[in-house]
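A.,

Following up on our hallway conversation. Structure tokens first:
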């Protein structure tokens, strides 16, 4: 199953969604929510994840109902998790994306980000639910085929791995393996 689409598209979509509105710096005053969103986005793009996290959290204090800020905070946590592999960052990532979806349930970007994170956290059923909602909201989404494949994989019956085949004496002789000494 392809996984290459998850990170590049999510990052691009998240940053576009986070920067689209209010990107006119002249219109935002220093320290405003829009200014902080821009500062956080710049820190994120520069790989300054601790700084981005702090700025997005400060911005959320001013605008706690901003789904875009929650999504950008989730992206920040994703990158922190990717660097550290710490489950703490993954949990924060899931929480931030869940909050973004809660605040804006019609955003396919936020749902794909949450679904991708759940998929990577091995919650395939949770991911499939998000991907299904994306297809309900936007049936002809650019990643519709990939999403459908993920849904099918998540819903496929899980089969237990088959036990290893038992080697017969004939197989051992053919392979040249030593036979155990026979008991008297």
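Then the amino acids I'd put at each of the 184 positions:
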């Amino acid at each position: 199953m392809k996984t290459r689409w998850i990170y590049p598209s999510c990052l691009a979509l998240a940053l576009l969604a986070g920067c689209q509105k209010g990107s006119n710096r002249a219109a935002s005053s220093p320290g405003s929510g829009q200014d902080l969103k821009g500062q956080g986005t710049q820190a994120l793009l520069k790989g300054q994840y601790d700084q981005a996290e702090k700025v997005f959290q400060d911005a959320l204090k001013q605008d706690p109902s901003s789904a875009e800020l929650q999504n950008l905070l989730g992206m920040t946590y994703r990158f922190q998790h990717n660097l550290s592999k710490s489950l703490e960052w993954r949990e924060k990532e899931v929480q931030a994306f869940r909050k973004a979806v809660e605040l804006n349930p019609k955003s396919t970007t936020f749902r794909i980000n949450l679904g991708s994170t759940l998929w990577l956290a091995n919650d395939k059923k949770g991911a499939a639910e998000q991907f299904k909602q994306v297809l309900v909201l936007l049936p002809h989404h650019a990643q519709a085929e990939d999403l459908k494949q993920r849904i099918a994989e998540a819903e496929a019956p899980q089969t237990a791995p088959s036990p290893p085949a038992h080697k017969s004496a004939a197989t051992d002789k053919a392979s040249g393996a030593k036979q155990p000494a026979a008991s008297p």
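The chain has one domain: 6-156. Curious whether your intuition agrees with the design.

B.
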